[in-house]
Design a protein that fits this description.
The complex is a heterodimer of chains A (184) and B (98).
Chain A: H1 8-28, H2 56-61, E1 67-72, E2 77-85, E3 91-102, E4 105-116, E5 121-127, E6 140-141, H3 144-171
Parallel strand pairs in A: 4-6
Antiparallel strand pairs in A: 1-2, 1-5, 2-3, 3-4
Chain B: H1 2-9, E1 14-19, E2 24-32, E3 38-46, E4 57-62, E5 67-71, H2 79-97
Antiparallel strand pairs in B: 1-2, 1-5, 2-3, 3-4
Classes of the chains: A alpha+beta (184), B alpha+beta (98).
């Protein structure tokens, strides 16, 4: 809490100027990425984490080459290995499968390599390889066609429900939440 | 930048995040960046039955723009200090626009 002071803004500006530099260093010496909490800090006062801990790039660095679940803004769930990324969280996934869920069913569709534009990312979860195969008993695997048909039905039902709710809200003078942005 | 700094003071605390699609995730706040993208470790999804795709996820990166709420541990927030800082920031903003 000591850091919530008037000088905070100036301090942050400095930090941000330093960030591009430290990112470059990361790329040159990946084995020495200095992201661990134990990395030394030069600042005095309360112990601080290094500033490069707090960039988008630093957050993605330790997810590289890991198996991830990527949820997109349109509700798609992709499972693949993160191979590359940049500061906008544009991502490259390898050996990707798309997992479609509908009702109590799911199906996997092999997709291959994905390059995802960062703005479409909703969340990125690291898969625990020990628990990867413990799929909850509430869902069962089914043929793609069956799941796809069910999903189409669910989607159109939800679309109608959303439309109705939006128009009711609008009649009451509310701006519907996340209108214009699809979220699942 | 005030809330960026504020969230930085909360790293390594357990927080619960509610996303705009109603998923609620509890986990240890590991990192936050200037867009308020959030990295959580040791996550636990509340109401997991509804979100089976997150069942084997242990840590996640959440894009700041999809967060609705962040629920914080009460004991870790100095409300008085935050209030002061917020007012100061607001005063600064007014000063800048003039």
């Amino acid at each position: 809490m000591e850091r919530l002071s008037l000088n905070e803004t100036a301090g942050n500006a400095q930090q941000q100027q330093q960030q591009p530099q430290s990112q470059q260093q990361q790329h040159r010496q990946p084995q020495q990425n200095a992201l661990g909490p134990s990395a030394p800090t030069t600042q005095s006062g309360p112990p601080q984490l290094p500033p490069q801990m707090f960039t988008t790039a630093a957050q993605l660095l330790d997810l590289t080459d890991k198996k991830l679940v990527l949820v997109l803004r349109d509700g798609r769930k992709l499972i693949g290995v993160l191979r590359s990324w940049d500061q906008f969280a544009n991502l490259v996934l390898q050996d990707t499968i798309e997992r479609i869920y509908a009702g109590k069913l799911y199906a996997d569709v092999p997709r291959g390599i994905f390059l995802v534009r960062g703005e479409n990312v909703l969340l990125l979860g690291e898969v625990d390889l020990d628990r990867e195969d413990d799929i909850p008993t509430t869902v069962t695997k089914a043929p793609f066609e069956e799941v796809f048909e069910l999903k189409k039905k669910e989607d159109s039902k939800r679309k109608q429900g959303d439309k109705k709710r939006h128009s009711e809200l609008q009649a009451l003078g509310f701006e519907p939440e996340h209108s214009g942005e699809i979220l699942f | 930048m005030l809330f960026f700094s504020f969230f930085k003071t909360l790293t390594n605390q357990t927080v619960t995040i509610e996303l705009k699609n109603d998923i609620r995730i509890r986990g240890i706040l590991k990192s936050v960046d200037q867009y308020l993208n959030i990295k959580l470790d040791d996550i636990e999804v509340l109401d997991l039955d509804k979100y089976p795709h997150l069942s084997s996820v242990k840590s996640m990166f959440i894009r700041g723009s999809v967060v609705r709420y962040v629920m914080l541990p009460r004991s870790e927030v100095d409300v008085g200090l935050l209030e002061d800082a917020t007012r100061r920031e607001a005063a600064n903003q007014v000063g800048k626009t003039r």
